[in-house]
Structure formats: C-alpha cells, structure tokens
Amino acid sequence: ATISTATLRHQNQLNVFSGGTSRLESPTIEFRSGSTSTVDDDLEVVGDTGIFAGAVLSGSGRLMVPDGSLLNLLDGAAVEIEIENNGQVSVGSSPGAATIEALTQTGDGQLGIELAGTVLGIGYDHLDVINTATLAGTLDVNLIDGFYPAQGDKFSVLTAGMRNGEFDAIDGIQVAADLTLAPLYDYEDLIGLILIAALPGDANFDELVDVADLGILGANFNAADMQWDTGDFNIDGMTDVADLGIL
Fold first, then answer.
1. Which residue stretches of 4-125 are H helix?
2. FRET partner for 188 with CA separation of 20 to 30 A, picked from 23, 175, 204, 228?
3. 113 and 133 in contact (C-beta within 8 Å)?
4. Nearest to residue 150, comparing CAs of 188, 189, 123?
5. Is 166 left (phi over 0), alpha (psi -120 to 50) or beta?
6. Alpha carbon separation from 70 to 83, 149, 171, 242 (Å, rounded)
C-alpha cells in the first residue's frame, strides 16, 4: 500500500502495481502526462484522482474507485485497463472526452457528465468504452456555463463495444416542464447512451406531440423493456397508461 497525506503525483516515472491488490490513498492523486503505470492486479485509488492526457495506464488488472472517492478522467485521458466504479467518476475538463478499456459501474457508483454545447468532446462530456460497459448506479447529468439545450439536440455521452445493463437512475435530465433529455440506449446503431432533448410525449423527435406519437405508444402499450422512442415517457421501463397521460 502507498499512503500519502499530500498530493501523490505520478509524473515522468514508471510505476508497477502487481503481486496483489495495491492501494493509493491521498487527498489528491495525479497520473500526469509522461508517467507510465503497469497495473497487473487491482489498484484501488482512495481520494480524488486525476488521470491526465498522456498518462499511460495499462496491464491486466483493474483500477478500482471505492465508495467516497472520485476519479476524474481529464480531457484526452486514455486508460487501457478496466475501471470498476463504486464511487464517482467524472469525464473531461468541463467538458471533454476520455477513453477507457472497460467499465463496470456498481449500484453504488455514479458517473458524472456535463453539457455545455452540442459538439462531442468540446461542448459536452463523452466517455468511450472500447470493450464492455456494465452499467448500474447513477448517471448524473449537469448543464454548465449557462447552456440550455434546444429541442432535437443530441448528446452521445457514452459509447461502448458492448453494453450490459442500464443505469438504475439518471439525474438531471428533466430540464424544464416542457423539455426532457430523453435517454436512449443502443440508438441509431450506436451502442451506449444518447440523450435527445425532447418534448414530453414526442416519441419520434419531430418536435410535435401528435397522432404519430400516439401510434407509437399504442403499438407498444403494456410492453416492458421500453424506452422513450417506444413510448416510455416517464422512464420506468414500461409503456402504459402513465405514459398516455404524459402524451
């Protein structure tokens, strides 16, 4: 175990974590550009950890974020190992984009995404998972810098090679009474999660709530495993009378 009470900074150095679970504990932990870390077992980071663009983390192990800890994948960060999130993971540099090998988020985990515009990686945070994203816990969406989305705006916040599960809760998507950031999994041939700013009841995203949306809802009425584009406007997994009331 490596324990520090100050900033624990890895920069221009080679780190090897093997031989069982390793633990880094510090108020601030930084993997900066120029550092190379080989993680062959579990590496637990306790505190507020930042991974910068140009830092290399590779190996056969996992980077573990425990409950009460924060991992910030700064803009351009690329992590070549799996991250297991039991705490908080944030993406980008308000905002930005990051790439990781695989993600497992447990029911205690939280993934933070910020939206400040409509350009991927510049206007909003984007996390690209090369292999499998296993999802649970919470997605926390925040509008920043005074940004307010328009109807039809799309935000591809998470992409993955494969996806297992869904977030248990998505916070911050009810922008106003007449505008929701509708969550759509594996939409338009893209594995992951897209948010589309929509009127409640607008299942086909044409910026109208009309008979076409009623037809979509009717075709999926009382069906499970539904989402917004199949009439689930209250995001409970069912298309039912509650969604008809919203429409």
1. none
2. 175
3. no
4. 123
5. beta
6. 12, 27, 18, 37
